[in-house]
Design goal:
The chain has 14 helices and five strands. The chain is mainly α. It folds into two domains: 213 residues, Rossmann fold, CATH 3.40.50; 80 residues, Tyrosyl-Transfer RNA Synthetase, CATH 1.10.240.10. The protein binds tryptophan (TRP). Tryptophan (TRP) binds next to strand 1 and helix 8.
């Protein structure tokens, strides 16, 4: 079975956009592939979080992915910093990664420009650590968004280069896995564009009912359709797209008909949408709270993941050491 691995940056809470994007595809993948997921807490050190920051954000991400339905028996989930052999591979890869090529990575250049007083070596070698994450398990596929394409190319370059230097066919070149091409882009409800944390328009899986209602009720609408069967402008289309995701077909059809015959009352639509979003999120929210209050369970999940990942990575590293000449 093909091996799939993906790293998750521990940056805040999951929102509906994450759920219908990455999370949902992880849920499908865990049934079809030999999957491992990990929380990239080493990578997060580039921004110098406090110990309390790290602890909290790792715990949050772990609880939320489990609450969404990642099954740690099927798909081990581990914390990057628990699996030390990856660090050794990071060191070896760094010996054959060149300053010029690392400096040319777009995300590095972007960070160097926006945070000129924190251009640290970890930022520069972000791609070698990411390559080590994946190559340590000889994974076949890596589910990533378009923004990670350059990191994936660097990963393949480092794999080829290692093979060439040592005259071996050891690492395979991991492929980017564009799983969510068919996935719906979840819109924001603020008029245009997608839902995102940085867009400030996100509805989080952990939001309570009142918060959800407040966010939905202030969604952007217009004065209403002025013709029968009128095409919907973006803010209205976004409300309907969201409805398609969380409401029943009957509900969707009802409001769609109301729109088409110009009877729509946006206030009613929003109330219904808020209720349906809440019904969708409520069970996930409860599980998030349960997991957050169950450190023992979270620790067991992480330990199980660590054991599986360490075994796989150590196996690779034993061979790498041999190839390099540490015998
Ligand atoms: N760079 C990825 C991101 O920003 C996170 C990540 C770190 C990752 N290591 C990885 C993803 C290995 C896939 C494989 O989202």
């Amino acid at each position: 079975m093909e091996k799939v691995i993906s790293g998750i940056r521990p940056t805040g809470n999951l929102h509906l956009g994450n759920y219908f994007g990455a999370v949902k595809s992880f849920l499908e993948m865990q049934n079809e592939y030999d999957c491992m997921f990990f929380i990239a807490d080493w990578h997060s050190l580039t921004t110098h979080p406090t110990p309390e920051n790290i602890r909290r954000s790792v715990k949050t991400i772990l609880s939320e992915y489990l609450a969404c339905g990642i099954d740690p028996e099927k798909a081990p989930i581990y914390i990057q910093s628990d699996v030390k052999p990856v660090l050794e591979l990071y060191l070896y890869l760094n010996m054959n990664a060149y300053l010029g090529e690392l400096e040319r990575v777009t995300s590095f250049k972007e960070k160097a420009r926006t945070q000129p007083d924190n251009v640290n070596a970890g930022l520069l070698t972000y791609p070698t650590l990411m390559a080590a994450d994946v190559l340590a398990h000889k994974a076949d596929k890596v589910p990533v968004g378009k923004d990670q394409e350059q990191n994936m190319e660097m990963m393949r370059l480092f794999a080829r280069r290692f093979n060439r230097i040592y005259g071996v066919e050891f690492f395979k070149e991991p492929q980017s896995f564009h799983f969510n091409q068919k996935a719906v882009k979840v819109p924001g409800l603020d008029g245009s564009g997608k839902m995102g944390k940085s867009e400030g328009n996100a509805i989080y899986l952990c939001d309570d009912e009142a918060t959800i209602r407040k966010k939905v009720m202030r969604a952007v609408t217009d004065a209403g359709p002025t013709m029968l069967n009128q095409e919907k402008p973006e803010p209205i289309r976004n409300l309907f797209t969201m409805m398609e995701l969380v409401s029943t077909k009957e509900t969707y059809d009802y409001f769609n008909d109301q729109y088409n015959n110009m009877q729509i009352r946006y206030g009613d639509l929003k109330k219904q949408l808020a209720a349906d979003i809440n019904a969708f999120c409520a069970p996930i929210r409860e599980r998030i709270l349960d997991f957050q209050n169950n450190d023992d369970y979270l620790r067991r999940v992480a330990a199980m993941g660590c054991e599986r990942a360490s075994e796989s990575a150590q196996h690779t590293l034993d061979e790498v050491r041999h190839i390099i000449g540490f015998r």
